[in-house]
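Database export, one record per block. Field names are fixed; values are copied verbatim from the stored entry.
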Amino acid sequence: MKACKKAWKNSLWALLFLLGGVALMAAGAARGELGVVLARATNICMECIGIG
């Protein structure tokens, strides 16, 4: 019974962190940060490849 309780507690924490991450991603998307992140990622990739 203790193992079941411990597993449930661990999965509850995992679910809590997952929901927190999804909430933060949604907040960033609502603020229009997706374009900024994509532009920075593209610039970094181009610099690593040597094109930019």
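Remark 1: The mean pLDDT is 86.
Remark 2: DSSP finds two helices and no strands in the chain.
End of record.
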